[in-house]
Specification:
Elements: H1 8-13, E1 36-38, H2 44-53, E2 56-60, H3 66-80, H4 84-88, E3 98-100, E4 118-126, H5 143-168, H6 175-179, E5 189-196, E6 210-213, E7 219-222, E8 229-234, E9 242-246, E10 250-260, E11 263-278, H7 280-285, E12 295-297, E13 305-307, E14 310-312, E15 319-320, E16 328-331, E17 343-346, E18 352-353, H8 354-365, H9 371-376
Parallel strand pairs: 1-2
Antiparallel strand pairs: 2-11, 3-4, 4-5, 5-13, 5-14, 6-12, 7-11, 7-14, 8-9, 8-12, 10-11, 15-18, 16-17
Helix pairs in contact: 2-5, 3-5
């Protein structure tokens, strides 16, 4: 299989002549086949190959400071360290925002024998929710400002990546933004904090950190320091066969050379690579060309895991239908105003409103949530899953 670009393994090990020192191999295994897309010098063909082959890639050159990423993970850990009774005061009736306790979600009812072994906290920040619960600032004084800054930074990256994705398939970079208004006046976006319990996953018994699923929105940006994420990738030379591959977090050390007093000093700076994956809406827009890939979280070592995924969707009122480069000709049925036996261009999926699609998916995975709750009181807007 032709590689869609440098893999995480190559970056971590240090490519010959690349001038890049490797990250610590003990902390960051080199087993991932996923390519790396560098936003400072993006290759559109490499990006398209990554999305057609894997639907996942590492994202480098995103310009989010390591200090902000560390702060987001610190606040995530601090929140889940609060007493359960305190966290439960931040629970929203339909789990569309605020705290979600253990046992809230089952993402794959065909494979899972019990709900996912994690708890979460959902922040509906784009557009801002007037009823968004926040922990008491006297308990976590930095929680809100850090997570709001993190959300804004991830949102900017998501728009950059989305424009590159459009360009990679031959569309104007702002076609969905401007021509289709798919992200106007805003694209719904959600930041979630997740804490996976130390329960060891037993795949053969249906026990998962979170079960196999695809994400519902446009794309997801993932921040984590621990292993556990697994992606259903093509098997090397497998003629269409797929296998579950572990996707470790990835960090790279950069040399920053400066001249001081005639002497060259080199300071090492750490760059955290985000993990990006495509969602169902983008797969529908591209008629299955770009992949929304199944993935899951499997706890193999009995340790706690924390992550802060950012889920980027679209304007809830936007209609998702096949984009022009991916339309296929099909027979047109006869009827009023239609020519019998004619042909028209269309995609595999019928047009659907973003909010309708997300509501359907949300009802299917949320334990104890009745359909009327979404219709009458739910504020589900994100297109998010678990990571």
């Amino acid at each position: 299989m032709k590689s869609p670009g440098p893999t995480a393994a190559q970056v971590l090990e240090g490519e010959a002549g690349a001038g890049r020192p490797p990250a610590t191999e003990a902390a960051y295994p080199t087993s991932s086949p996923l390519p790396i897309i560098d936003l400072t010098r993006p290759s559109l063909p490499a990006l398209r190959r990554a999305c057609e082959t894997y639907g996942f890639f590492y994202l480098q050159g995103h310009d989010i400071s390591p200090s902000l990423l560390r702060a987001a993970l610190r606040e995530c850990r601090s929140f889940f360290a609060l007493p359960l009774a305190t966290k439960q005061t931040l629970t929203y009736a339909d789990h569309s925002q605020g705290y979600q306790a253990l046992g809230t979600e089952t993402l794959n009812k065909n494979e899972q024998s019990q709900p996912c072994t994690q708890e979460g906290f959902r922040l509906n920040l784009t557009p801002p929710s007037s009823t968004q619960p926040w922990p008491d600032a006297t308990l976590l004084p930095h929680f809100r400002p850090v997570l709001e800054e993190y959300h804004a930074a991830m949102e900017e990256v998501a728009h950059r990546v989305t424009r590159l994705l459009q360009a990679s398939v031959g569309l104007p970079p702002s076609y969905l933004h401007e021509d289709q208004k798919a992200f106007s006046p805003h694209a719904s976006a959600v930041t979630r904090l997740l804490h996976y319990s130390p329960v060891v996953s037993r795949v053969e018994e249906g026990v998962f950190g979170c079960g196999s699923h695809t994400d519902w929105g446009v794309l997801t940006l993932l921040l984590t320091e621990e292993e556990g994420l697994e992606v259903l990738c093509p098997r090397e030379g497998g003629r269409g066969e797929r296998e579950w591959l572990r996707v470790p977090p990835c960090r790279e050390m950069k040399d920053d050379a400066t001249e001081e007093g005639g002497e060259k000093k080199v300071s090492e700076e750490e760059e955290w690579l985000l993990i990006c994956n495509l969602g169902d809406l983008l797969q529908r827009w591209t008629n299955d060309c770009l992949q929304s890939t199944p993935h899951r979280v499997v706890n193999r070592d009995g340790k706690e895991r924390y992550s802060v995924p950012f889920f980027f969707t679209a304007n809830p009122a936007a209609v998702v239908e096949c984009l022009p480069p991916f339309e296929e000709e099909e027979e047109e049925e006869g009827g009023e105003g239609k020519r019998e036996g004619g042909r028209r261009k269309a995609g595999k999926y019928p047009p659907i409103v973003v909010s309708d699609y997300i509501a359907q998916k949300y009802r299917s995975v949320t334990e104890g949530l009745e359909e009327t709750e979404i219709a009458n009181g739910g504020q589900k807007r994100g297109g998010e899953e678990r990571k």
